[in-house]
Amino acid sequence: MKVSITLLVENTARGQGIIGEHGLAWWITAGDQSLLFDTGQGMALRHNAKVLGIDLSKADAIVLSHGHYDHVGALDAVVANDCKSCPIWVHPAAFEKKYSANIPGKVRCISVPFLHEKGRERMGSRFRDATNGGEPVPGIHICGEVTHRYEFEDTGGAFYLDPEATVPDPIVDDTALYFDSPEGLVIILGCAHAGVLNTIAHIRHQTGGRPVRVVMGGMHLELASAERMERTLKAFREEGMQELYPCHCTGYQARIDMAVALPKVVRMCAAGSRWVYEAV
Q1: Is 90 exceeded by the pLDDT of residue 102?
Q2: CA-CA distance, 107 to 195, in Å (whole number)?
Q3: What is the CA radius of gyration of the chain?
Q4: What's domain 2-278's architecture?
Q5: pTM (two decimals)
Q6: CB 187 within 8 A of CB 178
């Protein structure tokens, strides 16, 4: 079975008519079924889908990586106009109101009303609990709530569950997708708030230790310490992956560090990029 992955929303863009937006959304087709993984903020998704000839109404499922605005901001528009009946896979913690204090002296809400204002009730029978993973379309797997094995990995920023910034948000809703190929796992991240290495280790454990061929998506390493970056790069080298596509929230310096450490592995990607792999 062939799996096609199209990056619909990302901070950068390439291709005629494609626009960039701080956010992430993927269109994944496996055989004759498709899913939408995240939605971006709201401006780019439906525009880029139209330019690329992708009919969002054909989605057999929607999967949400976590409840931050740059990944779920267009969900209300998609549900109202395109994917009117397909199931929506999401961790229940994504319905919580979420805040960020990453800007000094400012706490801002980074969740969206569509989710934190009775989002669970609004979804009704369409809701699918992604806590323990799942298979939204045949061959594509949700890794579920990620087990933490690397103590030096954190959520990647100052995230909270209250406007006073006193209750840290562990972002347990963070999840990723994966499928297996003849040469190993292909892993598609949202933001990897659980830690990119924790996520990889979690998925490898779920698959009986399968090797990792490809990792693509946001890795939230913009604020990573030098020690965390060094240990992350060491683990990447040991993993022996063939392709690494850091984007969105990974951070400019982190991407440079990856490219220097793994020049034959690290590659650029942007909204409009597309890949095709053989799945097993």
Answers
A1: no
A2: 23
A3: 17
A4: 4-Layer Sandwich (3.60)
A5: 0.97
A6: yes
